[in-house]
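ARCHIVE CARD
Drawer: 12
Card no.: 0347
Subject: one protein chain, sequence and derived structure
Cross-reference: see card 0346
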Amino acid sequence: MAIEMADYIDNVSKAQDLVFLQTIDAIFKTFNGARYYSLGNHDLEELTKAEFMSPISMSSKYYSFDRNGLHFVVLDPMYLISGGFYIDAEDGNFLPYGTKPYPYVNPDQLTWLISDLTANENLPTYVFLHYPLFERTGARKVVNRTDVRSVLETYGNVKAVFQGHTHEMEYQRINGIHYLAFEAVVDGSYPDNNAYSIVNIYSDDIIYIEGFVNQEDVLLRP
């Protein structure tokens, strides 16, 4: 399977972003296997979630699925608090940065996550989202990350969380869970500044990340 870790497109204008989306997704669809998507800030600075999701047939903002005896969860951290309510961070309503508290994993999603992990507590689980859940100075992080981490730690079956956004590889282990942010694809001209990974998960919970170009190899042990 293949998953894109959000910021699938850059933001210029609504019309241009839809062209970007069509162009990159046509390439992604040439992958001979299951494809999965996640939501990030650059995807939604000019588009609503519906406008981004519809052309690529992304049916849910957050979701889970099983493959080969493993459970995978994709979270949507693109929520902000406005007027005391959690709303989708989309179509420019969260700009300029710092004017509204975000990003959040909203309460309804946390309730769903608890239910999903409870139903799949016997399966090794791996989580994907754009914004980091670990502690980091400088880069934007999920505001309620400690609440999310607390849920992930409850069942003992979450092995790793894979993150984007920071543009550089960074690793932390928090209460037995691996948290890894990947190198960005876009920092400089192609091909010298490309970065991507193949994640290999073994039956003994060893995770070997084979990095390409600017992404380093990483070996994660239980």
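Annotation on reverse: The domain at 64-220 is CATH 3.30.750.180 (Transcription Regulator spoIIAA). The chain has a mean pLDDT of 94.
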